[in-house]
Predict the 3D structure of the following.
Amino acid sequence: MIQLTNIQKSYQDGEGQLNHVLRDVNLNIDKGTFIAVKGPSGSGKTTLLSLLGTLLQPDSGSYRFNGMEMTAPGINYADIRHKQIGFIFQDHRLLPQYTAWENILLPALAYRSQVRKEDIEYARLLLELTRITPVAKQYPHQLSGGESGRTAICRALIMKPLLLLADEPTGQLDAENAKNIGSLLVDINKTLHTTIVLATHSNDLASLAHTIIELRNSPFEGGQGDVRNPSPFEGGQGDVRNPSPFEGVREMY
Ligand SMILES: Nc1ncnc2c1ncn2[C@@H]1O[C@H](COP(=O)(O)OP(=O)(O)OP(=O)(O)O)[C@@H](O)[C@H]1O
Ligand SMILES: [Mg+2]
């Protein structure tokens, strides 16, 4: 599903010197694989996830995602990110003015004026899967760190992405909540067959993945994972429901 070939990425440091963060990165990720990216601070984990998520472009090399060359001209990155890639960040980045339930549905509303029945049903399923149904009506400041992380995971999954990118999603959590998020990612990978790339400093979290990649600021080869069946949750058309985005939605939880 993903092939990185001879990827190079450098940044200019404050003195104008080039800092070669990724050199000759070659990595294949098969659909349904769970990959952990480890490495010391500054080794390029976030840079690699940003490239995979098309938030950054490589200086050179090829990035094929789901059969498409992402370095080719004319690619609609915003559309690909919206429909095919889910992101979870360390600070979760929930919008404070919306409830957990609304935060989860926001991506489904990004290009639409109405919430579809299909999205509502899928959001409910995600709430169950992540065990946060009881707190769905609460605002981000009323959620625990673990609940906020699980809300962010639901939001990242609402569009049924092919790829879930998680950049240190447990960095701000205690050991128990970190463990829960880790087992949730394993569940998601097994149940929804979502391909996951997780950046983490934690050996415990990384050990849950099929393959661990170590970044050391030097050329490396990535691992191969299993090919799994496509997600059973794909497809389906929903009805048009409410005239305005959140009308009637808040009341549902
Ligand atoms: N926008 C930028 N401009 C210049 N240098 C950058 C930029 N972003 C990252 N870097 C540098 O690139 C290197 C890799 O950064 P990156 O954030 O990918 O590391 P990381 O492995 O995610 O680290 P951490 O574990 O601390 O999150 C670092 O030396 C960083 O200073
Ligand atoms: Mg980072």
